[in-house]
From TrEMBL:
It comes from Salmo salar. InterPro entries: F-box-like_dom_sf, F-box_dom, Hemimethylated_DNA-bd_dom, Hemimethylated_DNA-bd_sf, SirB1_N. This is F-box only protein 21 isoform X2. NCBIfam families: yccV. It comes from the Eukaryota. It holds the Pfam family YccV-like. Signal peptide: none annotated.
Length: 651
């Protein structure tokens, strides 16, 4: 950018004489006009740096707290504007430098952990310590880290898949850590100040850290339902005191008849108008426990619907209490003087059963057996959360042993032990889970030490796990070199397909992508028998392929059951980024780690793609061969066999 060019040239006067030429340079312009020019969208931060170094005048115009650097900051990181007050004056140049430095460090961190994750079940917290200590030393706000991770995730959908895979896991972990801190602060509040709704939202956020779930958002939806109930109530009793309640008011209706009118109106809106109902058909779906999903799908289980019902009732002045009834969470509504301890002074509301009102005896009919009076008592918000998290824990334990169920089990254990940190049963379950998955052995030892201090009688189970965890730590100090499989080897001559190809299963019809192969089936004889591999024409004596399936499973399929897909498409599997760096129209490009294990497969894949899909346009096949694979992790099929849910699907 020229800073000393003439603004005006000489001109000829009326008498033919040339007056003295007037020269004006850019730096003579007013500061406001210079700022306006330097905020032009085509100028990047490098341009501003160059301009500010050209002379003192422009250096002063581009000062750190000025409009120019503020514009650059907002232009590059628009998501961060919500963290600043409007017209806030701050050192934008310093903010820019810090955010830029954090971005570089975040990307280095994502790349550095990928190699360590390739042959293990990813556990971000295990390896983030040193890398994030460096970021924390910068004194940067946490939202800088999150913004950079979101920038990675929002880049080109088909590219940088490995970078996105680990960025997503890091963002998941960081948000969960923030939510745990919020949960601990919530639990430190006096019991009477704890809201069951806020606790339920924290549970929801922890299990769904990448979803847009907030207490304000949930509260706004409940206010809309409250307004509908008020409208219904106004039709029945236009002078009802609940109609005068505004958001945030602490109010209680004292008259029983007025309370009854609220409950009737609430039932009419919630169950008749909005069609909320208990999810009897899919009771053990974890979505039933997440309050944002209950509002979205208008269905849930007894405890989630009870939290919703109780919150709405309290907004309208009716004080309902949670009851930890076995097998079926309930609410109780006092019909007599408040503070009564007689279970027959209450009506029990079944939010799962469309707000049906039950006597104490009818509650027993609901579950089919008698219970003691203790089960009819009101419980605290903390106990409500323990019951809610306990439900998720049981769902996780009922899971199929895939990554999704393991993640739910890990998340619910984290939550339960945050609320009740000295529960030996769940501490032991957490240690066994981590041991089983082969992750974070150092944390396993910490958990076991805590268990031993709480309950010395557990020394048998603790001793066994300590011994094998120490062996695992020693084993990790001497990692085995990954197996390299070359197609040119004589024993691999029968392998027809290569990693990255999009395939279709001939019998089951599912779509998948190959991420590994073996020249012969390497599973146990028990697995081979269970999967009826012997019924295949070539039995186990043929190549088998590790494939990521469209439905989110990982399977082990025989060569004779696979064929190249006639119209290749992207495979929406959560682990795709672990093995591939890019989807290139008709195939996936293996990332660096996967190419290390299958060094000759990429050329084979490109040749197959060219023959199958690019016969009419050979130039496109050549172009695909020029694609570069960014650094990232991958994995051999052998490394993953003990961790994935594999099915031969021979039939």
């Amino acid at each position: 950018m020229a800073t000393s060019g003439a603004v005006g040239e000489g001109y000829s006067g009326l008498n033919g004489f040339v007056s003295e030429t007037e020269h004006k340079i850019m730096t003579d312009l007013p500061a406001e006009l210079l700022e306006y020019i330097l905020c032009f969208p085509v100028l990047k931060h490098v341009d501003i740096c160059n301009v500010s170094c050209s002379c003192k005048r422009l250096h002063d115009v581009c000062h750190g707290r000025g409009k120019v650097w503020g514009h650059q900051y907002k232009l590059r990181w628009p998501r961060l504007q919500k963290h600043y007050r409007q017209n806030e004056c701050c050192d934008w140049l310093k903010e820019y430098r810090t955010r830029h430095t954090v971005g570089l460090q975040i990307r280095r961190t994502v790349v550095s952990i990928s190699k360590r994750f390739f042959t293990e079940v990813p556990c971000v917290g295990q390896v983030l310590g040193d890398s994030f200590a460096e970021i924390e030393s910068l004194g940067a706000p946490e939202h800088f880290c999150e913004d950079e991770l979101l920038s990675i995730l929002n880049s080109d959908r088909r590219k940088s898949l490995t970078l996105k895979y680990y960025a997503k896991k890091i963002l998941y972990f960081l948000r969960q850590q923030n939510i745990l801190r919020s949960l601990k602060m919530f639990l430190e509040q006096p019991a009477e100040q704890q809201s069951a709704l806020e606790g339920a939202v924290l549970v929801d956020q922890y299990c769904n850290p990448l979803a847009d779930v907030s207490l304000d958002g949930i509260s706004s939806q409940l206010e809309e339902i409250t307004d509908k109930v008020k409208k219904m109530l106004r039709m029945k009793n236009s002078s009802h005191p609940s109609l005068r309640v505004t958001q945030g008011d602490c109010f209680a209706v004292e008259d029983f008849e007025l309370e009854r009118q609220v409950v009737v109106a609430l039932n009419a809106v919630l169950y008749e108008q909005l069609q909320y109902k208990g999810n009897e058909c899919d009771y053990y779906n974890p979505l039933n426990s997440y309050i944002h999903q209950v509002l979205l799908r208008r269905t849930g289980i007894p405890i989630s619907l009870s939290v919703l019902y109780m919150t709405l009732a309290r907004k309208l002045g009716v004080q309902l209490e949670p009851v930890n009834f076995p097998n079926h969470f309930l609410l109780r509504w006092c019909q007599h003087q408040r503070g009564s301890g007689d279970i027959y002074d209450f009506v029990y509301i079944d939010a799962f059963g469309k707000g049906k009102q039950l006597t104490a005896k009818e509650c027993e009919y609901l579950i089919g057996h008698q219970v003691t009076a203790d089960y009819y008592s009101a419980i605290s918000t903390t106990e409500v959360l323990l019951r809610m998290v306990g439900n998720l824990l049981n769902i996780g334990k009922r899971g199929e042993g895939n990554e999704k169920s393991y993640q739910l089990l890990r998340d619910s254990l984290d939550l339960y032990l945050t609320i009740n940190p000295d529960n030996v049963q769940y501490l032991l379950l957490q240690a066994r889970l981590y041991f089983h998955l082969g992750i974070w052995p150092e944390k396993v030892l910490d958990i076991l030490q805590h268990i031993q201090a709480l309950d010395p009688s557990q020394h048998g189970a603790v001793g066994y796990l300590v011994q094998h965890t120490l062996e695992h730590i020693q084993h990790k100090k001497h990692p085995v070199e990954p197996e390299v499989k070359r197609r040119s080897a004589a024993e691999h001559v029968e392998v027809q397909y290569s990693v990255g190809l999009i395939m279709k299963h001939k019998r089951s019809g599912y779509n998948c992508v190959i991420y590994g192969w073996d020249p012969k089936c390497t599973m146990s004889q028990e697995w081979i028998t269970t999967m009826r591999v012997h019924q295949l024409s070539s039995g186990a004596n043929q190549p088998f392929y590790n494939v990521l399936v469209q439905d989110g499973t990982c399977r082990y399929a025989a060569q004779e059951n696979l064929e190249p897909h006639s119209a290749p498409l992207e495979i929406a599997h959560p682990e795709v980024g672990r093995y591939f760096s890019e989807f290139h129209d008709s195939h996936y490009v293996a990332n660096e780690e996967l190419q290390t294990r299958y060094p000759e497969d990429m050329a084979e894949t490109l040749g197959t793609v060219r023959d199958l899909y690019h016969r009419l346009t050979p130039s496109s096949g050549q172009a695909s061969g020029q694609q570069e694979s960014p650094k990232g992790p991958g994995g051999s099929s052998q490394d993953q066999k003990s961790q994935e849910n594999k099915e031969a699907m021979p039939m």
